Each structure stands twice: as structure tokens, then as C-alpha cells.
Amino acid sequence: MPIDNTKKMANRAFLIDRTLLRRRSGASGCHRAMLSLCCFTWAASSDSKISGDACLPADVRSLLKGDAVRRVGTACSTLLSSQRARDCTPDCLEALRDFQAERCYPHISQSQRLQPRYSAPFEHLGGVHSQHTITSLQGRWYGLYPASGVELLEATLEPSTGVLSGVKLTGNSFVGAGRVSWTVSSTSCKVVSSLWQGVYTPRWDPCKLLVIDEDHMQLVLSMGEDAEEVLSFVRATLPLLLDWEDANSPTHGFFAAMLRCGLEPEETATSLIESLMETLHHTHGTVLLDQVLLFLPLAMLGAWQLREQRFSLLAFLPVLIIYGTLVWARLTYLGLAE
Description:
The protein is an alpha+beta fold and 338 residues long. It has helices at residues 3-23, 29-48, 57-64, 67-75, 77-81, 90-100, 131-136, 238-242, 254-260, 268-281, 284-305, 317-333, and strands at residues 124-125, 128-129, 139-145, 149-158, 163-168, 180-184, 189-192, 204-206, 208-213, 216-224, 227-235. It folds into 4 domains: 3-48, no CATH class; 54-109 and 237-267, no CATH class; 116-235, Lipocalin (Beta Barrel); 283-333. The protein contains 12 helices and 11 strands. Helix 4 packs antiparallel against helix 6 (90-100). The longest helix has 22 residues, at 284-305. It is globular. Residues 1-52 have low confidence and may be disordered. The chain crosses the membrane at residues 285-304, 311-331.
């Protein structure tokens, strides 16, 4: 821990400790020692919440636009440009390892807590997508914009209107972070115009939504005279981004290059955890799980009331541990608990 931070925590603890001891002038030496220890622990924990280790969306975007990605593009150019290339050069291997060692590399995968619990059917009639399809597109996405390259967005649905809004988590000179970049519904699609740079624009241009699958979509804008501009989006997870086939993606071909160099895009433990989280939060079983979590406390309370004298609380302990773990996992993923 840096010396400056330690001094700050000690000073904060001293001030709180002195205030409390003034109010409890009759406290014994033991009580005073306990109060001092508690104050210092609180001061340390309050500072640890702002450690600077977390990666914000802007940090992740900086990684994807930074030198580490460019070095991979240069050192692995043969692997990235040719499907026939099989040999991984030492320079390419080193560049890929350096990219994976970046602090924000694991944070390329963003939370998908807004994504529905299970995939809805992708239905459309006459080019118009159903509300089921629109709902299934909630979550965080990487988007490719002609003006600024890769950006990170969060798509949220307004249930009362059925409108899905793409809010930029990283912005550019046309649409800043925190502003809506596009909106789509079962009957409409529009994108903020890119005619005015550096100022807020009230103009919206019509577009067409093309849903490829639950993890890939495009917004197509007509530019006149049979010309089109395409905004491509991929769900914000590390494997999907690295394996994205869009040639404009900053990490295009990285997934295959890593495999050819004997590297796993994600650590095995991370992949297993991601698979478990997917099963726990985004399958048909998630609905059943939530119902069980709601009903189980009543069932345990009834069993406790009907227990025999020889039936001890220890029999409930394994069930309570499993129940508490599942509830914590669900609430944490949904952003309702830390």
C-alpha cells in the first residue's frame, strides 16, 4: 500500500477515533483500543473501494484503439490476412501475450445483466421485427462507427413504449457518452445524424435494423443514390469481439491467431465461469430458478415448523448455504447487490 494512502487513512482514523472518545470519555483502555482498530479498519476499507484497478468503458476502448492492438496487427499481419498461414512467428506470439497481459483485457467482456433471461424467438414479417426480437437485444454492445471506430453502448428497453435505445458509454464528437445514439422498435429505426460535429444535433436519420442473431446486428442507413452506411454491432463479450468477422473490427482475426499460436483467448477457469453464468442467468432454467428461490424460504419455514425434536438446525445448513450463494449470484449479476 502506498505510504501516502497509509498516512491519509491513519489521519482519518485518528480524527474519527478522537471524536468518538470525546463522547465516551469514560471508556476503558480496552474499549479505546477496539475503537481505534475499528476506525482504522473502516478508513482502510473506505479507501479500498476506490483503488483505481477497475477499467471503465473509456479504458476498454483505449485498449482496443491502443498500441497493444496495433502491435498485434503488425506482428501477426500474415496470420490475420491469410487463412492459409499456419505458422505463428515469435514476434506474433509475443505481441499476443502482451495484449492478453493488458490490465483491461479481462474487462473486454462487459456485464450482460440487461440481456433477457433466455433468448426469444427471432421473428419478423415483411422486414419488421417482432417485439420479442427487440427485447432480446438488450445488453452491452461494441459498435463500429465510421467517425470514431469502435464504441461501447448499452441497449435498454422502455417497456411502456417498446423502444430500444442505444446509449453510448463511450462517446465521440458527434454523440457524447451518456447520450442516445439510436432507437429501434418493431415499427421504427432512427439514428442521430452525423452532420454536425462537436454540437448536440436534434436531427435523426431513418435506418433499417438487421438482426443477424442474438449477438450480432446492423443498422443500415441510406446515403442516397443506392449508397448505404452500415453500423455493425457485436455483443460485448471477449470471445465474440475477438471472433467478430467484420473486417473493420480492431481485433479482426485475433481469435484465430491466438489459437494458431497456442494461446487461449480466455483462461480455462474464466471460460468455465462464463459458461456457468450463462447457464445460471440466460437460459430457460433461469425462470425456474427464480421461482424456486422465491418459494424455497416458505418451504424451509414450513419444514422448520413441522420438525421433530431430534431434527436440528444443522440439517438446514447445506440448503441455506446453497440458497444464499444462488441468491447472491443472481442479485449481484442484476446489479442489486455488491
